[in-house]
Design goal:
5-stranded antiparallel sheet; 18 strands; rod-shaped
Length: about 450
């Protein structure tokens, strides 16, 4: 007597209840320009909480074939026949051992995983990510190469034969009970699981999943980082792997694109404590400026110095660099931007025996600005952006100093303030003040970027 299963259909419901497990077997294949990943989802994790969702279950349509031997109770009582699997009616046309019969039919089995906690289901996959191109543009392609199911979960799961229809309708219920009983046998369960895995690994199944995952990956990039208008620019002299290149080019594009939630100008404008677009540098003591332009400026002090216009930063994707740390625990991100700033405040100094007070304004036109950040964290929760350096680069032609003072020396003083040594002294003083703000600004930028990520991931 034997039981044969043949799966004809497999449906999995409630995948919204699963969680993504940590990635395994991550291999960066530079030779083939691909990422090879082991991806597993485990569930159930979020069964019917905030939103109504399907129970986490599998339904399997089977073709079932069962060889059976018939016996009659009165014959068994006489010891004439050995009992087979079923007790059948007297009118049953087959007698054992002269002949046996085969019952053929179909059934649907439900594997209910909603309350599985000790041995949750885990779907494992091997995925290859690579970059393809079409019409001059690049896009990520996902290739699902294999699927598997952890065997542990079936030991505590609930198999239930929902329906069974055979060619001998009168015996459907007995056959259904028999099949249900077989699921107590771990050999049957293992065989069933193997059949499920073999079905899932059919070429059309893997191909369909690959196509769906490719579309979902593209949508995820667009949803989180914003869409790309036209052709994604390719940076020069950056990453060697095409997948790395694509991912980081998308990040660069997002930072530079007004359509993105990560657009650098918008992120700066939203940073309000401190207000990065109106950054108060405080008081600056420049000391004495000796014998420059034939004049000595003594006890030169700047008061309530305010830097405005940081959000007007100009940044090209080729001006953003990514450098991985040797231990891959963190990355360095560099920006080479240009700024149109206004730095203004009060000033006070002495010259030629006269105490002079007034106001100053420094304006920059495309002044170079270099920033180096350390980025760490494997999840959004753990994300940390630490500004290591943020400095105005000195460019004599990009800075202009104007003064509002009441003195017969005004023309001479304005001339002196626009000489290279004084401008350098101003830039050095501004950078020293910026350095004092690094820790607070780092926390602020980290929090704002996290907020954008959370919103993009949950919308």
């Amino acid at each position: 007597s034997k039981l044969i299963f043949n799966i004809s259909n497999l449906l999995i419901y409630g995948l919204e209840n699963v969680k993504l497990m940590p990635l395994t077997d991550v291999v960066i294949d530079n030779e083939n320009d691909s990422f090879n990943l082991g991806v597993s989802v485990c569930g159930p994790e979020y069964c019917v909480q905030k939103y109504p969702v399907d129970p986490f279950l599998m339904t399997l349509d089977f073709y079932v074939q069962k060889d059976v031997c018939a016996y009659l109770k009165e014959e068994v009582a006489k010891g004439k026949y050995v009992p087979a699997d079923f007790e059948l009616g007297k009118d049953f046309p087959y007698k054992w051992p002269e002949n046996s019969m085969i019952i053929r039919g179909s059934m649907m089995i439900t594997l209910n995983l909603e309350n599985v906690t000790e041995y949750p289901i885990q779907l494992n996959s091997k995925i290859i990510y690579r970059i393809e191109s079409a019409d001059g543009n690049r896009f990520p392609e996902a290739v699902v190469s294999s699927l598997d199911i952890s065997k542990e979960f079936v030991k505590k799961s609930d198999f239930c034969v929902q329906t069974l229809d055979s060619e001998y309708e009168a015996y459907n219920e007995k056959l259904k009970q028999y099949v249900q009983l077989q699921f107590r046998n771990h050999f049957v369960v293992d065989a069933l699981l193997q059949s499920i895995v073999e079905m899932m690994n059919q070429e059309n199944i893997l191909g369909g999943m690959s196509e769906h995952l490719t579309m979902y990956t593209a949508k995820t990039f667009d949803d989180i980082l914003g869409p790309v208008e036209g052709v994604l620019p390719t940076t020069v002299g950056q990453e060697s792997n095409a997948v790395d290149q694509y991912i980081l080019d998308r990040i660069r594009y997002a930072i530079c694109s007004p359509a993105s939630k990560f657009y650098i100008q918008d992120v700066i404008r939203k940073c309000k404590t401190p207000d990065l677009d109106h950054l108060l540098l405080g008081d600056i003591d420049l000391g004495n400026v000796q014998d420059i332009g034939g004049l000595n400026l003594e006890n030169l002090k700047l008061f309530h110095v305010l830097m405005t216009g940081l959000s007007n930063v100009k940044l090209d994707i080729n001006d953003i660099g990514f450098i991985a740390a040797p231990d891959e625990s963190e990355d360095y991100v560099t920006f080479k931007a240009k700024l149109n700033l206004t730095i203004a405040g009060g000033l006070q100094f002495s010259a030629e025996g006269e105490n002079i007070e007034g106001a100053f304004t420094v304006t920059t036109t495309d002044n170079p600005f270099a920033v180096k950040c350390v980025v760490s964290g494997n999840t959004v929760d753990d994300l940390s952006v630490t500004i290591e350096t943020a400095e105005l680069q000195f460019d004599q032609n990009a800075l202009k100093v104007s003064l509002d003072i009441q003195s017969y020396l005004i023309n001479m003083v304005v001339y002196i303030f626009n000489l290279e040594p004084v401008k350098k002294k101003l830039v050095e003083a501004f950078n020293q003040k910026l350095a004092l703000e690094k820790q607070e600004v780092s926390k602020l930028v980290t929090d704002k970027i996290k907020q954008v990520f959370y919103k993009q991931l949950t919308d």
